[in-house]
UniProtKB/TrEMBL annotation:
The keyword Transmembrane helix applies. It is found in: Cell membrane. The chain crosses the membrane at residues 31-58, 64-86, 107-138. GO terms for cellular component: plasma membrane. The keyword Ribonucleoprotein does not apply. This is Uncharacterized RDD family membrane protein YckC. Residues 28-149 form the RDD domain. It comes from Hoeflea halophila. Pfam families: RDD (PF06271). Keywords: Cell membrane, Membrane, Transmembrane, Transmembrane helix. It is a multi-pass membrane protein.
Length: 156
């Protein structure tokens, strides 16, 4: 699929993600995958909201305090288990034929996937237009949070 990885002096994996063909159409596919994943997370919020209702009843109202963080209760495990799983992609990303990869060649784990998602939302709240504009100037069509974490999104 790709070139063999060769180690450089600073001990980073080089070569595996240098092929420009890995990034064809990635920008558009990422945006479309985001909408698919956002819809899936919102759909998963419905059964979790029902569960939170019953928790609220059983805890005499205390469980209702989970409603403000309902989206996070669903999105964080969704991102961590899918992007941090063996396929390294959310269902939306798989549908679009892309996956997350680390530049050092190691697999993406649960924690890195969660940090990747949290950084996306945090940076999006502050730097909205720059998230996608960064893909025009950074190597490998990386977004700001990809660049910060040493990850890329490639065609699978």
């Amino acid at each position: 699929m790709s070139q063999p990885i060769r180690e450089s002096a600073d001990n980073h994996a080089m070569g595996a993600y240098d092929d420009i063909a890995l990034y064809d159409g990635v920008r558009t596919k990422r945006v479309l995958a985001f909408f698919v994943d956002y819809a899936l997370v919102l759909a998963l919020c419905v059964p979790v909201a029902i569960l939170v209702f019953f928790i609220g009843v059983f805890t005499l109202g205390l469980g209702f305090l989970l409603y403000p963080i309902l989206f996070l209760l669903v999105a964080i495990p969704y991102i961590g288990l899918t992007m941090g799983g063996p396929k390294q992609a959310t269902p939306g990303m798989r549908l679009m034929g892309i996956r997350l990869a680390r530049l050092d060649g190691r697999p993406v784990d649960f924690m890195l996937a969660v940090v990747h998602g949290v950084l996306f939302w945090a940076l999006n709240a502050v730097l909205t237009p720059f998230i996608l504009l960064a893909t025009l100037v950074l190597d490998r069509k990386q977004t700001v949070h990809d660049w910060m974490l040493g990850t890329v999104v490639v065609r699978s």
